[in-house]
Each structure stands twice: as structure tokens, then as C-alpha cells.
Design goal:
This protein is of the alpha/beta class. It has a single domain, classed as 3-Layer(aba) Sandwich (Rossmann fold), CATH 3.40.50.1010. The chain is built from eight helices and five strands; from the N terminus they run E-H-H-E-H-H-E-H-H-E-H-E-H. Helix 7 links the parallel strand 4 and strand 5. Helix 3 runs antiparallel to helix 4 and helix 5 crosses helix 6. The N and C termini lie far apart (33 Å). The model has no long low-confidence stretch (mean pLDDT 91).
């Protein structure tokens, strides 16, 4: 039985695609990540997919090949999301809609027991007035890591 382990943020997917694990150079990385998604180990909210669609067409196409990883909000996640927004009302910029997926990524992680590990490229720091994913994860006892830490945890090795 496969156990879900990860909830990934659009920042990690976009950062990996555009800045670190270029698909033309790191085909193995994207194959491994796709296998996690296809095997039900890696998830993302549909809100993450919407952000990616607005920002990168080629990454959006890759996401389409692994569509089973993108899930709609359910009742449990909606409850978690409501609680997060009550505690951290500035988590989303309501004027611009910026960071709209951030609380959803954590709400998804919190809907599992134990919580999924959130994968994000957001840096440490943050406050109640300017919350960032790692800050909220730490406050809510949700594990959090970045892509490089995921590679290490999964034991992936890439050779030319």
C-alpha cells in the first residue's frame, strides 16, 4: 500500500523547472518526481495547477501528464483552510490573489495523519503579518522541506 507523503507548492515546481532542474538537463529528476505523483505519494491542490497555468506553459504540460496528483479541495481541507485563514489572515494577498495556493498546500498536508510533508522553495522566516509557508508549517507542526531536501530524502542519484 502506497502512503501519501508530500504536498508540493507551485514555488517548488516552478523553481525546479526554470532555475535548477532544467528538464532538458535533469530528465531523471522529472521522471522521479512524476513517478511519485503517479504512484500517489506526491500531491498538489488544483490551486497549485492554476498558478502554474498562469506562469509556465511547458511546466503546465508536464503537470497534465501527471494529472492524478492534482486534487480538489474536500471538506476536511476546507475546514483546515478556514482555520489557517482565521489564524493567519494575511497569508493571501486578498487584493491581488497572490499566494492563493499557499494556505491550500498546508491545508492539504494537514488533512492526513500524520501530516504530509510540504515541499516549498519559500525561505525561512515570516511573521503573523507576513506569513510564509515554512513559518506556518512550523507553527502548525507540519513538516516542511525544499526540493533539494526531497532529492536527498528520496535517495535520488543523477548521473550523466
Amino acid at each position: 500500500m502506497v502512503i501519501p507523503l508530500y504536498s508540493i507548492d507551485s514555488s517548488s515546481l516552478i523553481h525546479g523547472w526554470r532555475e535548477v532542474y532544467f528538464p532538458e538537463n535533469f530528465e531523471g529528476f522529472w521522471k522521479e518526481l512524476g513517478q511519485l505523483a503517479d504512484n500517489g505519494v506526491l500531491f498538489a491542490s488544483k490551486e497549485v495547477l492554476r498558478e502554474i497555468k498562469r506562469k509556465d506553459e511547458s511546466l503546465y504540460q508536464w503537470c497534465g501528464e501527471h494529472g492524478s496528483m492534482f486534487i480538489e479541495l474536500d471538506e476536511t481541507q476546507m475546514g483546515n483552510l478556514s482555520n489557517l485563514m482565521a489564524k493567519y489572515p494575511r497569508f493571501v494577498d486578498t487584493r491581488t490573489g497572490r499566494n492563493a495556493a499557499d494556505p491550500v498546500v498546508i491545508a492539504l498536508a494537514m488533512s492526513y495523519s500524520p501530516p504530509l510533508t510540504v515541499i516549498t522553495q519559500e525561505g525561512l522566516g515570516g511573521t503573523n503579518e507576513k506569513p510564509k509557508i515554512p513559518f506556518v508549517c512550523a507553527r502548525e507542526d507540519v513538516p516542511c522541506m525544499n526540493l533539494a531536501q526531497l532529492v536527498r530524502k528520496e535517495g535520488w542519484r543523477f548521473r550523466s
